[in-house]
Amino acid sequence: MNNSQRENQWKQWIENNKHKMEHPVNFEVRFVEEILTRIPEINPSYVKAQFPFIDQNGGNRRIDFMILDEQKGIRLAIEIDGLGKMQNPNQSINHDRWNDLLTRQNALLRVLGCMLLRYSNKTWLNESKFVIHEIRSELLKQEFDYSSAVEARERREKEITDKDRKIADFAQAAKDHISSVAAGVSLDVSSAEAERTSIQKELALITKQLLTLSEESNKSRLSESRKIPLIVFVSVLITSATIGFFMQSNSQPELAVSTRYVTPPASDSNTSLGASNVPVTDYLSTTEANRHVGEKTTLCGRIVQIRETDKVTYLNFDKAYPNSTVTAVIWNEYAKNFSGVNQKINRTVCIEGEISSYKGKPQITLRDRAQLITK
């Protein structure tokens, strides 16, 4: 739209709405001509003069100007007032009018959920550049905030769709694996042992992926229909583990298929990697953290104590302070990401991040919720 077209649009708008803007000295029309027409972000078709609304008492109210552009998320009300409206003939304050003004303003904000800008006639007449700048800034801010919210919602929906697809893919892969395991029951002993090793590795990998997806799905607050593929996947995983156990029991009764850390370790002697028959490298026990300082990895163990100070929260694993095997550190600035962490006391969890050392004790600093995975 060129300047000529825009000017004609405003002239037509003023002509169509001037009966709503009656004023002894024509201030409302002048406000449109001297202020609103000079703001390029305003399309006259989105401006409503003497915009009506209902207050909390069911009364009919009006505001001088309302700019409504739902496609850009813009909801801006503008009111211009002279001091005379609030005065008695002797120039004292008319408190009834003043109270009514505030009541109308509160009703507008509550009912329409919009931003309100108020200007005295003296201000917009003498400081027009300031008024124009303030209105433009508010319009641009509302448009930016709205577009950012829309983009964030679209990204989140895409992430949820991607997670659903991954869950479905994992479920299908597990189903295919069950078929291959069932077909291999008649293999000879050496082939069965090789198959068992493969099964154990795949179960360990799938378990880690399941934990990650489960945590992300919970944070996404998936609907019940979106949770169904996850439930199917869990069932398939359990079935796969059962079949693997059956194969092992046929050839070597003393061995058992297990995925590491499915149940909390009962004591230090049961939590080392050496105690497991499964060659898992995806997780480390919290009791081994000392040997991996400086590495970025995943540690799994039982939270036995949670200590809070003014600035930080400590999650102590396996033993209470000062004998804990490893400590998860949550600074107050990230505490909001770990609401409800106190409920994880005496539960087996996994933490992800770089292992550092403080006074000879290994620790991992947690900043993001995804670093804390509940077993």
How would you characterize the overall build of this protein?
With about 375 residues, this protein is α+β, with helices and mostly antiparallel strands. It folds into three domains: about 5-125, no CATH class; about 170-250; about 270-375, Beta Barrel (OB fold (Dihydrolipoamide Acetyltransferase, E2P)). About 45% of the residues lie in helices and about 20% in strands. Strands 5, 6, 7, 8, 9, 10, 11 and 12 form an eight-stranded mixed sheet that branches. A hairpin with a 4-residue loop joins β2 (about 60-70) and β3. The two termini are about 60 Å apart.
The structure class reads: alpha+beta
What profile does the largest beta sheet have? 8 strands, mixed
Q: What is the radius of gyration computed over CA atoms, rounded to a whole number of angstroms?
A: 33 Å
The unreliable regions are 185-190, 248-280
* Oligomeric state of shown chains: single chain
Number of helices: 7
Number of individual domains: 3
Overall geometry comes to: elongated
**Count of individual beta strands:** 12
Strand content: 15-25%
- H/E topology pattern: HHEEEHEHHHHEEEEEEEE
Q: State mean pLDDT (0 to 100 scale).
A: 77
The termini sit apart by: 60 Å
Give the proportion of residues in helices. 40-55%
